[in-house]
Amino acid sequence: MSSRILVTGGSGFVGGHVVAALRESSGVTPPPVRLLLRDPASLASGDARAADVVRGDLADPGSLHGVCDGVDVVLHCASHIGDDAQLTETVNDHGTRALVEEATRAGVARVVYVSTAAVYGRGPFTGALPEELPLAPASPTSRARAAAERHVLDAGGVVLRPHLVLGTGDRWVVPGLAALMRVLSARLKGCAARHSVVDVRALGRGVVAAGLPERELAGVYHVNHPEPVDCSELLDTVADRLGLRLPGAPVDVDEARARLAGQPRVLHHLGMLAVDHWFADDGFWAGVGVDPGAGFARSLSEHGPWYREFVER
Predict the structure, then answer these.
(1) Burial code of 66-105, b = ≥16 C-beta within 10 A, e = fewer?
(2) pLDDT of residue 306
(3) Distance CA 164, CA 264 (A)
(4) Residue 45: enclosing H or E segment and its boundaries?
(5) Domain boundaries, the chain
(6) Counting beta carbons within 10 angstroms of the beta carbon of residue 267, is it exposed (0 to 12), middle (13 to 18) or buried (19 or more)?
(7) Per-position b or e across 158-169, b if 16+ CB within 10 A of its CB
(8) What is the pLDDT of residues 223-259, one digit of tens each?
(9) How do beta strands 52-55 and 73-76 pair?
C-alpha cells in the first residue's frame, strides 16, 4: 500500500482498529500514516512512533489547515457522541465540513467517513439497502452525523454505515445490553427482532480497503456482518459470555417495558432491540475483498476477556 493516509480519531474505538488494520495490511513496508488527534498524548506510545502525529481539533477549523497536505486518502473515524447538542454539531457537522474542504484543497483522492445506521432513526428496518431508506435521524448526534455524511458525499467520498459495532474498546453496545439485563435481572424471551452487527476488527479492515484509490467506490454502504442476529440470541449470548447473574425468570417485551418504567436509558435500549434493525449487505465486503468476520457469537467470545473486565469495573 503506497497511498499516504490520514486517519482521524486514531486513538478512539473504531479509529484505533483502523490504525491496527493499516499495520496488519502493510506487509514489509508500512504505509505512510498521519494521525490527526485533538490530544496526541492519548495515543499509545507504540502507535505514536509508527505514525506522523499532528494536532488538530474538529471543533476548531483553523487547526486543520495543512493537515491534508501530501495526503492521498482521508479515513475519517472521529466523531463526538454525547448530550451536548451544540458540541456535537460543531464537531460532527462543521468539523467534517472543514476537514473535507481542506482535503479538497489539498487534492486528496478519497475521503471515507465512518458514520452510523442511526441516521435512519428508529426501525423497523428489515433487510434494507441504503437506497431504500430515507434519513430520519432522531437525536442530535445522528442529525449531526447525517450532516457530516452530506459533506463527504458532495465531495464524491464514501460513507460507511455500521449498526452495532462490537469488540475491544466498545463502551456502548455490549455494556448497554449487559446493563439492560442487569436492571431486568432476567433474560428476555420471545423477541425475534433481527439486528445487524459487525466486529470492529472487520470494520477496521473494511475502512482501510474502502480507502484504496484503485477501488471503484463512491456513495453509501452498509458495513455489517451479512447474517443478522435475533434479539433473544443477542442477549443470551451476552449473558453467557459475560457470566451475568440473572436470577429472575425470563420475561417478554411487554413485561420488560413495565419493569423498566421510569428508566429512559434502558427503555431506549429495549425499544431499539424489540424491532428489526437489519441492514442488508449491499455487496460491500465482496467489492473490497474483505472477510466480514466470523459472526456475532464467535466475535463476542474472542473479545470476552476485555468485556468482562470492563463491565466488572
Answers:
(1) ebbeebbbbbbbbbbbeeeeeebbbbbbbbbbbbbebbee
(2) 94
(3) 20
(4) helix 45-49
(5) 5-167+198-225+278-293
(6) middle
(7) bbbbbbbbbbbb
(8) 999 999 999 999 999 999 999 999 999 999 999 999 9
(9) unpaired
Cα 248 from Cα 64, distance rounded (Å): 53
Please state the rounded mean pLDDT for residues 150-166: 97
pLDDT one-digit tens code per residue, 262-295: 898 889 889 999 999 999 987 899 999 999 998 9
Alpha-carbon distance 280 to 273, whole Å? 17
Strands 194-195 and 229-230: antiparallel
Q: And the C-alpha cell for 262?
A: 421510569
Q: How many CA atoms lie within 13 A of 256 on its CB side?
A: 27
Alpha-carbon gap, residue 277 to 298, rounded angstroms: 21
Give yes or no for residue 48 having a pLDDT over 60. Answer: no
What's the CATH architecture for 5-167+198-225+278-293? Answer: 3-Layer(aba) Sandwich (3.40)
The torsion angles phi and psi of 78, rounded to 5 degrees, stand at -85, 145
With 0-12 / 13-18 / 19 or more C-beta atoms within 10 angstroms meaning exposed / middle / buried, residue 49 is exposed
Query: What's at 311, amino acid-wise?
Result: V
> Residues 6 or more apart from 262 whose CB is under 8 A from it?
none
Residue 180 CB: number of other CB atoms within 10 A? 22
